[in-house]
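To illustrate the input format used throughout this study, we show a single complete record. The first block contains the structure-token representation of the backbone; no residue identities are included at this stage. The design step must infer an amino acid for every position from geometry alone.
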């Protein structure tokens, strides 16, 4: 009986779903990089001062996390908010899931406050 309980609990352990966490970070916009069509879609990115770690999301230069912006209508609206925040010095809170990355491992913005 104990052996059966052990096997069932082991089976349950391996069958349980695992989820990456959605991370958040707050800071002022450090850098906003935009690229033309030569570089392809979804290559624009930004980083926030003080956001140095968010799960498995990759960082750049001074150690700030890179957030990719999708090339779609929602990404265009996000770009507008990011540009306004950079211009005014207003802090942004960005949320990203470290499972949602580009081929280089940089995280895409999920949503912002």
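Output of the design step:
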């Amino acid at each position: 009986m104990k052996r059966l309980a052990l096997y069932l609990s082991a089976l349950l352990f391996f069958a349980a779903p695992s989820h990456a966490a959605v991370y958040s970070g707050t800071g002022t916009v450090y850098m906003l990089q935009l690229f033309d069509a030569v570089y392809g879609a979804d290559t624009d990115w930004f980083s926030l001062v003080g956001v140095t770690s968010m799960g498995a999301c990759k960082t750049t230069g001074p150690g700030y996390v890179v957030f990719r912006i999708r090339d779609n209508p929602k990404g265009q609206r996000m770009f507008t908010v990011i540009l306004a925040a950079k211009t005014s010095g207003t802090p942004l809170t960005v949320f990203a899931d470290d499972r949602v990355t580009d081929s280089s491992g940089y995280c895409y913005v999920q949503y912002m406050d």
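Structural context for interpreting the output: Residues 23 and 54 are 6 Å apart (CA to CA). Residues 11-17 have pLDDT under 50 and may be disordered.
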